[in-house]
Design brief:
alpha+beta, 9 strands, about 15% helix
Length: about 100
């Protein structure tokens, strides 16, 4: 297994294990995700760390890091259902040597 595949597998496991909905209220879902690598979301580059992902309604997702005061919001048609789930996931895509958070 190549190093990048191992990194991706580790990141996916960490993200899935640490993603837990913290709040369900009026179509808003919040989750904390530990990301062990740097990534891009929208036009913002984030370093590794713990991020709060907030989904508001059907058309926006905000990624923020309280430790660094970085945040990015993307308006898009998101496909999610505000229902309780036993497991959630965050998807990252790798292009070249850079990781991108998929929305």
């Amino acid at each position: 297994m190549t190093s990048s595949l191992r990194t991706f597998a580790l990141a996916a496991l960490v993200a899935i294990a640490s993603l837990s909905p913290a709040l369900h209220a009026r179509n808003t879902i919040r989750a904390l995700v530990d990301v062990p690598f740097s990534f891009d979301y929208g036009t913002t580059h984030f370093g590794r760390g713990t991020y709060l992902i907030t989904m508001n309604g059907d058309n926006s997702m905000v990624v923020s890091n309280r430790a660094t005061n970085q945040a990015a919001m993307v308006l898009a048609k998101l496909e999610w259902a505000p229902t309780s789930a036993k497991a959630s996931q965050v998807t990252f895509r790798k292009y070249g040597d850079r990781w991108f958070l998929e929305n």
